[in-house]
Design goal:
Shape: globular
Radius of gyration: 31 Å
Low-confidence stretches: 1-29, 422-437, 465-479, 648-660, 790-809
Helix content: 25-40%
Number of strands: 44
Largest sheet: 7 strands, mixed
Oligomer: single chain
Distance between the termini: 132 Å
Structural class: alpha+beta
Strand order of the largest sheet: 36-37-41-42-40-39-38
Mean pLDDT: 77
Number of helices: 18
Number of domains: 6
CATH topology of the largest domain: Transferase(Phosphotransferase), domain 1
Length: about 800
């Protein structure tokens, strides 16, 4: 017994000594700074700022090599649960520092002193930085009043006591291992309703209306109203939502918009020392819009939720395994037009024709055999759904979205497979196809039995060569892009005889495939890329699909020829409908609602390129000529991704293109780095032309004060005269409020400093009315033009007076 007690005491002493060593190690590796930093202070990677109650920590954390972030997290309960990340979209390199500069700016910089994030508080009388007991990081003045605070710039988490303002968003991370802004967000509408959005536009969950105490659509709130305090208040005319807990329950909860699009309230179980989800919406994770990307299938009973169907694989295997399913699934093979096999996705449903880049055609009164034959006769048909009861057939073109599988779903989807895809016979179409396969097997046995194997071998060789020839002429990238031969495109375009337009990238020609499907073929000029590099870039462009982006259907990379094949836009470019050349009679005048819809669609397309793609794509040449209109006048942005393909030659091409200079941001001409804000500037210039129906720069204008429309528009906006800016051909038929918003947004977009321009996401919110549009300042460059014009007017008036004095009359 004494020996046992001695061992126990020794073990306890050893354990205490071990814990002491560990604590000393962590004290050395992570030096703690309590609560506050003064001006000029620096936080190194091995230092942490801790709140006075020791509940929250500000520190650098790493998500892989050269991917370092600064975030606020819980100190003792789930240290990786970050409630706020400063530079979530701009990771810093190893060895990055946080500095509270002498001029009051909070800056994260790389070891080479290049800044990756800043608070933008320079010159605002900042005296110190404080990490509050609530987890709020604030910059204060000498009196202790907050000048800037992290709670006003939330990431994906709503903390207790945080004011969630109208127009603000909680934006989910891309994945559990990537804190960058993802696809899903939570916003509050003007009515007080909370909504979950995909791509900042598509609503997939709603809290219901606010009844003064709870949200009507959340029944749990009325049950837990004693545990939590919910309220919607008003702060100087700006509504905000806030919540807190009854302290007696000590749940220590916070709300997170997770990377899978679900909203979850996490609470701390102090007794068991674990986090638990006390509330989740939507109730079924497969209700999240576009959760599994294109061609992905959601399984609500699976821990990973998203799977790829047979014959498909993740486009980004690494991201897929880490929970980033945004890029979806692509085919494993390059099928040809003879692909006639299908796999049955039982109990599977998907949105037909409502996804980005997706389309479907429905037919009624036909049987399943007709539906199958119709799909196999078209190379781009991905599969079909068939309802035997209503005899309705739906053919799916392009990728499908929102695929869901569950025993509760009665529908089946027939997904097309390549002839080389190996599958068990019971996964193919039943009945007729099985019988056909059996006949083929029986025929092979008969041939073998009658010594006709040489003939069978010869037939097999002929068919193999034919399949090879078809595959070579109909090669696809990722099952979407077709490889054309140069002769095919020569024939399709009648030897490039009908020109649709010309630009800096090349000339565009009208054509048709097999005399039916209309296409637009762009011949690229000055492209010096090799075949492999060209295919890589084309593959990247081809996977980008959005309803407001022109769809790339194929390409040609043969000898020195580099061509891109696009879908054909019947109504041509926006420029042909906006501007009338001298002596021309324009028969179509775009109505105001069509113009505003075009402005919205163009903004959505550019925003998708900037924020929703796997990597940010800067268009670099946004203008009416590159906005095409389909049969329904839906705007589709063209020529995206080509600036990168052109390489360094593009900077020379774009600055010499006729008509393009009027859309170039100042940084193009000053040699500064080009960012996505350059597209915002070009969009603003284009928006002016959509509003007015005339070129921004018009030296022939009879009114000398209107030769540069943006300057005149800014002047009219300053005095509140927006009506005079609308196209005179509209004859006053326009929405006055939409006109005012469009003009103000355009002025914000053309600010000289890119930091003063809004992002395309913010532009879209302002146009849609979900974010308030304030009065913009007059850009400095326009102010200079105004001064110079006034000088010119003064000189002209002096000459006029002198002329009158010298006149003999």
């Amino acid at each position: 017994m004494k020996l046992a007690n001695g061992c126990c005491l020794f073990s306890q002493a050893a354990l205490s000594f071990l814990l002491l060593l560990i604590s000393q190690y962590f004290q050395k590796s992570h030096e703690q700074i309590v609560e506050r930093l003064a001006l000029g202070s620096i936080v190194h990677p091995n230092q942490t700022l801790v709140s006075r109650n020791d509940a929250f920590t500000l520190r650098f954390f790493s998500m892989g090599r050269d991917r370092n972030y600064l975030g606020v997290s819980f100190s003792r309960i789930g240290i990786d649960n970050h409630i706020w990340v400063a530079n979530r979209n701009h990771p810093a390199r190893d060895g990055a520092l946080l500095r509270l500069s002498r001029d009051g700016n909070l800056v994260i910089s790389n070891p080479d002193q290049i800044s990756v994030w800043m608070s933008g508080t320079r010159g605002r009388n900042i005296s110190s930085m404080l990490l509050e007991d609530s987890g709020n990081l604030i910059l204060t003045d000498n009196s202790g009043s907050p000048i800037w605070q992290s709670f006003d710039h939330p990431t994906d988490t709503l903390m207790q006591g945080m004011k969630f303002y109208l127009g603000s968003s909680l934006i989910a991370s891309k994945s559990p291992t990537d804190p960058a802004e993802g696809r899903f967000s939570l916003q509050m509408l003007q009515t007080g309703e909370m909504v979950s959005l995909w791509n900042k536009t598509t609503k997939y969950w709603s809290s219901g209306a606010w009844n003064g105490q709870t949200f009507n659509g959340i029944t749990e709130m009325s049950i837990n109203v004693s545990k939590h305090n919910f309220s919607i208040s008003n702060d100087s005319g700006r509504p905000y939502y806030t919540w807190s807990e009854n302290k007696m329950y000590q749940l220590f909860s916070h709300l997170v918009v997770e990377s899978d699009g679900n909203i979850r309230v996490h609470s701390w179980d102090a007794i068991n020392g674990v986090w638990f989800s006390s509330w989740t919406q939507p109730p079924n994770p497969c209700q999240v819009d576009h959760l599994c990307g294109q061609n992905g299938i959601c399984k609500s009973d699976s821990t990973l939720f998203c799977i790829c169907p047979q014959g498909f694989q993740p486009f980004d295997p690494t991201g897929w395994s880490e929970g980033d399913w945004s890029m979806g699934c692509v085919t494993k093979f390059n099928w040809d037009c003879n692909a006639k096999k299908f796999s049955i996705l039982s109990n599977t449903y998907h949105d037909q024709g409502t996804g980005v880049g997706s389309s479907a055609r429905s037919y009624s009164g036909h049987d399943q055999a007709w539906c199958e034959a119709s799909c196999t006769s078209d190379c781009v048909c991905l599969g079909f759904s068939f309802d035997g009861g209503s005899r309705n057939c739906s053919l799916q073109y392009g990728p499908f979205f929102n695929g869901k599988t569950s025993p509760d779903i009665s529908e089946n989807f027939f997904l097309r497979l390549d002839n080389t895809e190996q599958s068990s016979l019971d996964q193919f179409l039943p009945g007729k196809r099985k019988i056909k396969t059996a006949w083929i097997i029986a025929l092979a046995v008969v041939l073998a039995g009658t010594s006709l194997l040489p003939i069978a071998f010869l037939m097999w060789r002929i068919l193999s060569r034919k399949r090879l020839a078809n595959r070579q002429s109909s090669e696809y990238i990722s099952g979407i892009l077709k490889k054309f031969s140069y002769k095919e495109l020569q024939k399709a375009t009648a030897d490039f005889s009908v020109t649709l337009g010309r630009g800096g990238f090349g000339s565009v020609y009208k054509g048709s495939l097999r005399g039916q499907t209309m296409i637009a073929v762009k011949k690229l000029h000055n492209l010096k890329q090799g075949d492999k590099d060209f295919r890589t870039e084309v593959s990247t462009i081809g996977i980008i699909q959005h309803i407001n982006l022109v769809r790339l259907r194929g390409f040609c990379a043969e000898d020195k020829h580099r061509l891109l094949v696009y879908e054909y836009m019947p109504n041509g470019s926006l420029s042909t409908l906006l501007f009338t050349k001298p002596g021309e009679q324009q028969h179509i005048v775009l109505r105001w609602d069509t113009r505003f819809a075009i402005a919205l669609g163009t903004a959505r397309g550019i925003m998708y390129l900037h924020e929703e793609c796997r990597s940010c794509i800067i268009h670099c040449d946004v203008k009416p000529e590159n906005i095409l209109l389909d049969a329904d006048f839906c705007a589709k942005v063209s020529d995206f991704g080509l600036a990168k393909m052109m390489g360094r030659e593009f900077s020379r091409v774009i600055t010499t293109m006729r008509g393009t200079r009027g859309y170039l941001a100042p940084e193009w001409l000053s040699g500064l780095p080009i960012t996505a804000k350059a597209d915002v500037y070009s969009y603003g210039m284009t928006l002016f032309e959509i509003i007015s129906g005339r070129k921004n720069l018009d030296m022939s204008n009879s009114s000398p004060d209107k030769w540069f429309f943006p300057l005149w528009a800014c002047q009219q906006a300053q005095v509140g005269d927006f009506f005079s800016l609308a196209d005179i051909r509209l004859c006053g038929s326009f929405d006055a409020e939409q006109l005012k918003i469009a003009v103000l947004v355009a002025i914000w977009c053309i600010q000289d400093e890119e930091i003063n321009r809004p992002s395309m996401a913010r532009v879209l919110q302002m146009l849609e009315g979900t974010h308030q549009v304030t009065d913009p300042p007059l850009p400095k460059s326009l102010s200079f033009l105004e001064v110079e014009r006034n000088k010119s007017d003064l000189e002209l008036s002096k000459l006029s007076v002198e002329g009158e004095k010298e006149s003999p009359t």
